[in-house]
Amino acid sequence: MTAAEALRLAVPRLHSAGVEGAARDARVLLAHALGIAPDRLTLHLPDEMTEPQAVIYEAALAAREARRPVAQITGKRLFWGLPFRVTRDTLDPRPETEALVAEALARPFLKVLDLGTGTGCILLSCLKGMPMARGVGVDLSPAALTVAAGNARDLGLEDRARFLESDWFAKVGGAFDLIVSNPPYIAAAEMPGLAPEVRDWEPHLALTPGGDGLDAYRAIARGAGARLMPGGRILVETGPTQGPAVAGLFRQAGLGEVRILPDMDGRDRVVAAVKPGAADRCGCA
Ligand SMILES: C[S@@+](CC[C@H](N)C(=O)[O-])C[C@H]1O[C@@H](n2cnc3c(N)ncnc32)[C@H](O)[C@@H]1O
Question: Any long-range contacts for 28-37 (C-beta under 8 Å, 24+ apart)?
Fold first, then answer.
């Protein structure tokens, strides 16, 4: 069978399984099976598929019919222009999280702490953009930390990134001029309404802290002052309706210059704050 014929059969299958963007996903998975970049696919559509390619494509389609996310099937996701390995133990990095990275890189920093690092996408993108900086990525999931460490190696950042199993700040020492986090923030009541790709396949620990969805921000707000240098910044991603509540938690914790920033779609996405006090001696906070 040619790749074009396989693609023609795949699209209605994914469509019947309720996959949004069935044609796009069928193409990405076909490129994965052929071992080529998706933008090269058109060139290869007339080619006969080999038996191993057909087997890989069939397995990928079956997984997608079961609503497994494409990034978990291909094992990779491009974030901030960098390739990240993604597994069932990590959140699939979302494009809206790039708003947090852009804000982090808007000012210099030397020591960054990423709370709930997952694939390491925020920490490693920040380090790529700030060549003098070093950083620590923290997660409660040892399996996610293994993926993050692998991504650091693949990106040539292993000398500047360290990973630590910790419940938020519990095992973190020292002081940082930047703290970043995209913590779990979905309220317990919202979990049943999520798309199957998220609800059934992404790690529960990465999605929700339970309750009203704000518990991780409460823990982070409580601990941030002790780990930020005077003048240091904290940036957290939030759900689009959570900005004012998280801004309130930061103000109550004694943080200043609290701002709510939008993502590329204009929705509230990042809450930024600063620890009051003089900037550190290098002037980098
Ligand atoms: C929403 S995911 C974000 C992952 C990654 N930073 C990103 O933006 O794609 C939240 C991460 O926080 C981690 N996490 C959840 N509870 C935690 C806790 N108490 N302490 C540390 N990390 C935690 C999860 O394992 C998950 O990797």
Answer: 28/70, 28/74, 29/57, 29/60, 29/61, 29/64, 29/70, 29/73, 29/74, 30/3, 30/6, 30/57, 32/56, 32/60, 32/73, 32/74, 33/57, 33/60, 34/3
